[in-house]
Design brief:
about 450 residues; 5-stranded antiparallel β-sheet; 5-stranded mixed β-sheet
Length: about 450
């Protein structure tokens, strides 16, 4: 079922039918209330007439309706009155019968102590009457029957007027709902169609366009904003992937080119054993360089996949192990590593991934620290979560490069060995933990890199 038909059904037809059903039920209650009001009016009139039938001169029987000063004003809607004598014959009629008219009705009076009887009578011409019969005893002990009858045409007319107006309003409301739902359906269809077209572009790998803005802040507008943000991230991920592939191809091509050049030189003429050994040593160095690059690329890919075993562990212990593991290389270079850490700091994290990130931070600090320098490692709990910083006394990182150093294959100094993948791995590890890593801009000397894990990971 299309969106337009669904909105027609649920937004117009169903509410219209529900409204129609409610109006019919209300009409039935309205008729019941009108008939109950008519019964109360008849009973009230019967009560007045029954106690005053014999209060005339000489206790002569009479109906007060016929002598009321308002008789002309109430004649259109006043009930008819009939009084039957002890023998059941008609004694008195209101309004008075016209000359030549006769009423052959008869009614035998019943027990005056009985309750009044209410009933509906249908005349041969289809006219409906609502009647009340009250039995009355005269001062002389005779029984009389008083019957008051009211036409139900007024009730029927009021109900018909109600239904006519109610159904007209329901039809108008249904038409308005149909028009409104048609407008909304077309608008929603346009907005969803734009999102569908954009998703089709994404499926085809086109991340260059953003979803069409619609200016609304409802759920569909929020979906559009989320989709636009996801598109930006996908575009950024693709650009980063393309840069990574291009940089990796460049990094791989350099040692391969050197290896091929040396092999070509060796193959041009006969070489003695020492020259061959020298060429093989040079080639081995390039192979080791390729192996390091391939290993770091695999580490970066593994960090991006996030296939880790997160568990509750002591982060301080992992930091200590990383520092102890780097001390040998640091001492070989004449460096001192100083650790500032609490005795225990439990958190939920992947110990292997965290150790890899810390090793990269320490390796980076050792590479750039001058001989006799100091590397400062600190673990502490900050308002945003747990933080680990590694600071060195090296040349530092220029302000314009503090974000670029986390890009793959980005090296500030070409003379320092490495593929430029250490800090990107650190950022990926932090990101997969829901944290972040940055270069502290307030460091007076050297460089200080800070990795933060969110407070939700703290035990």
């Amino acid at each position: 079922m299309t969106l337009t038909r669904r909105l027609w059904l649920l937004g117009a037809l169903v509410p219209a039918l529900a409204t129609l059903g409610a109006l019919v039920a209300a009409g039935m209650l309205f008729r019941y209330d009108l008939e109950a009001s008519l019964d109360r009016a008849l009973l009230a009139q019967a009560a007045v007439e029954s106690v005053s039938l014999f209060d005339g001169p000489g206790q002569k029987v009479h109906l007060h309706m016929g002598v009321s000063p308002l008789v002309e004003q109430v004649r259109p809607f006043a009930p008819q009155g009939q009084l039957f004598g002890p023998d059941g014959r008609l004694v008195m009629h209101y309004p008075p019968l016209l000359e030549g008219e006769s009423d052959t009705d008869s009614l035998i009076p019943g027990d005056p102590r009985g309750p009044p009887r209410l009933s509906t009578r249908v005349l041969p011409d289809g006219t409906r009457l609502r009647e009340v019969v009250v039995n009355v005893r005269s001062p002389h002990g005779e029984r009389y029957a008083l019957r008051l009858s009211a036409l139900m045409a007024q009730v029927d007319g009021s109900v018909r007027s109600y239904y006519r107006m109610a159904f007209s309003m329901a039809a108008v409301m249904g038409l308005l709902l149909l028009v409104l739902q048609t407008f909304l359906a077309r608008r929603l269809a346009r907005r969803l169609g734009a999102i569908t077209r954009h998703l089709t572009l994404l499926r085809e790998g086109d991340f260059s366009q953003k979803p069409t803005p619609d200016g609304s802040e409802d759920e569909i507008g929020q979906l559009r904003e989320v989709l636009a943000e996801a598109t930006d991230k996908l575009r950024g991920a693709r650009e980063a992937q393309e840069r990574l592939i291009a940089d990796a191809a460049h990094e791989l091509r350099t040692p391969l080119t050197l290896m091929r050049t040396r092999m070509d030189l060796v193959l041009r003429r006969e070489r003695d054993a020492e020259e061959l050994r020298a060429s093989f040593r040079e080639a081995r160095g390039e192979v080791e360089r390729l192996a390091v690059l391939a290993s770091e690329l695999l580490d970066l890919a593994a960090a991006g996949r996030g296939e880790w075993d997160r568990k509750k562990a002591d982060l301080a212990e992992v930091v200590l192990q990383a520092v102890e593991g780097a001390r040998a290389e640091a001492e070989e270079r004449g460096l001192l590593i100083r650790l500032e850490s609490p005795g225990r700091e439990e958190a939920w994290f992947d110990p292997g991934g965290m150790r890899q990130a810390l090793d990269n931070l320490l390796t980076n600090a050792i590479k750039f620290s001058p001989k006799g320098g100091e590397i400062r490692v600190r673990l502490w709990r900050a308002p945003g979560g747990l933080r680990i910083s590694v600071a060195d006394d090296g040349p530092g990182i220029p302000p314009g490069e503090r974000e670029a150093v986390f890009a793959p294959f980005r090296r500030l100094r070409g003379e320092v060995p490495g593929a430029g993948l250490g800090l990107p791995i650190v950022r990926e590890v932090a990101r997969r933990h829901g944290g972040r890593v940055w270069v502290d801009p307030e460091t007076a000397r050297g460089a200080e890199l800070v990795m933060e894990l969110p407070g939700s990971l703290a035990a």
